[in-house]
Amino acid sequence: MTTSSFAAGAYASMQGIGAGGLLKKPANLAGAGGAAAGMPDFSSLVGKALESTAQSARAADVQAASVASGRSDIVDVVTAVAESEAAIETLVAVRDRVIAAYEEIMRMPV
Questions:
Q1: What value does the CA radius of gyration of the chain take, rounded to a whole number of Å?
Q2: Ordered DSSP codes for 45-59
Q3: I need a labelling partner for 36 at 20 to 30 A (CA). Which of 1, 59, 82, 105 fits?
Q4: pLDDT in tens, 10-60
Q5: HSE-up (13 A, CA, CB side) for residue 94
């Protein structure tokens, strides 16, 4: 069962991926390409999301090893695994939306 503090932590970690930066208006645009100066590109945002997901999985592994050696509580493992699961589900949902957007663009007439 998830607690409100877990949900708040999961939301905060998802904001750290870069979604908050996407909503900000760029201060100035760089040239005719339209890329904002100082704003991360899509590939770096995806890279950050993958790294964040991998980091939460590593944390869950560390907690599991800690419990196996008797240095930690099982609640910590369950929390770490739940956070990792939430990160993976979020990443899969974003992937599905990107694929759907790509398919929709491919169906557009030229």
A1: 18
A2: HHHHHHHHHHHHHHH
A3: 105
A4: 555 555 554 444 444 445 444 445 456 678 888 898 899 899 999 999 999
A5: 17
